[in-house]
């Protein structure tokens, strides 16, 4: 489950469901870098871009690497600060459904992987469609091959290896 949590977090880093978010300044303020913010100013922050910024995620920021979320010593999942991994917003308005969303994603992924071998159709174009929430422009075409009982049992036995 640690690896699945890491894989889902890595997918949300590169393809956040909410790609852009905006806030309104409630009273005059100054950002740590000196930017002056007047009351009423609208601030847009690009969650999509932040997930692909080298200064935040390092040289391999464009690569899909679930391992970056796993502690090298024991492979356990390590969360990142909400102001670094902003897919769920941060601070007092952090997504209220974050834990529930992970639970749902893991449940769906585990249920499918338990029953089927999933293979993405070769050369299928995978492109994001930017909107208020992000979609896949052409959906995701996959082939499913049902696992037989012995295969499912093997999968169960391998958990924790
Ligand atoms: C992968 C799934 C999800 C992502 C990426 C996500 C992301 C976000 C983001 C970015 C915000 C902040 C929006 C803003 O700035 O106003 C937010 C707020 C919120 N989300 Fe989610 N969300 C997810 C799933 C869910 C689910 C499943 C629920 C409920 C069961 C939920 C409930 C909420 C609520 C109630 C807020 C408003 C919190 C507040 O303003 O205090 N979210 N979410």
From TrEMBL:
Q: Which cofactor does it need?
A: heme
Q: Which GO terms describe its biological process?
A: lipid metabolic process
Query: Where is the chain membrane-spanning?
Result: none
The record, for PROSITE patterns, names: CYTOCHROME_P450
Q: One matching Pfam family, short form?
A: p450
Q: Tell me the InterPro entries matching this sequence.
A: Cyt_P450, Cyt_P450_CS, Cyt_P450_E_grp-IV, Cyt_P450_sf
Molecular function in Gene Ontology? heme binding; iron ion binding; monooxygenase activity; oxidoreductase activity, acting on paired donors, with incorporation or reduction of molecular oxygen
Q: Is Mitochondrion included in the keywords of this UniProt record?
A: no
What protein family is recorded? Belongs to the cytochrome P450 family.
Q: Which PANTHER family match?
A: CYTOCHROME P450 (PTHR24296)
Task: Write down what this protein is called.
Answer: Cytochrome P450 86B1
